[in-house]
# Entry
Amino acid sequence: MEKVLPTSWEHFCELTGRDPIASLPNVSQLDEKTAGRLIADHKLAAMILFCNGGKLPDYTDSSTWKHEPWWEVVKDKKKPSGRGLSYHGCDYWSTGTCVGPRFAFLEEEDLLHIVKHFLELYEALYL
# Structure
């Protein structure tokens, strides 16, 4: 059976049986920028866990790959201060740590799919 990956927050909620509005954190008391970061964090964490089959990567197992986006901040005429993320390549390396990022994927294809469809969430989170 082919793995179905979400293409929108609403699609993710449909795949998981969640209500797209009720499943979001209450951010009504926060400023817009902070609220946007928290919602982006919530959505990305939920979708990455879904993509990973409900499993968190085992950072103590150095024999398995963990994939995370590597961002380059770029500038252009619309964003001259360099406020944008680019994901036009990838690198492979390993570390000697038993901890890792919360947004690690177990499959590279899943990472590329989520970055393609949810770049605005990463921008809300990091910029």
Remarks:
- Helices lie at 9-16, 32-51, 108-117, 119-126.
- The chain has a mean pLDDT of 85.
- The first strand starts at residue 72 and ends at 73.
